[in-house]
Amino acid sequence: MLSAPELIMILVVGLVVFGPGKLPEVARSLGKGVREFKKATNALSQALNAPEQAPVQQQATVQPQAPQPAPTAPETPAAKAQPATAEQPAQPAKPAYQAPTQESVRQQIQEQSEKKAE
Description:
The chain has helices spanning about 5-50, 75-80, 100-115. It is mainly alpha-helical. InterPro entries: TatA/B/E, TatA/E.
């Protein structure tokens, strides 16, 4: 830990090097950098210390859609102008991003080490 005289000496050198106008900007950006570093290390330690979960495999079941009854209202010119939409089969929803688990990271590392050994 820094003592008071060491801290004062660092501030004086910083004042001489950067000047009184730039010193607050430098201190602010240094503080932001330290804060971001702490956030990143906390996130990494939480990811590594998280309990392992078995991967859940989702099987999509496609259920046939029942045919839609025809509209009973009389057709208007505006309704005739709109094209009929064709029924599209339901596609299973895929997650946009799935976070890596400890097991998947271990498997990737093992695969990479096996490739290097070959």
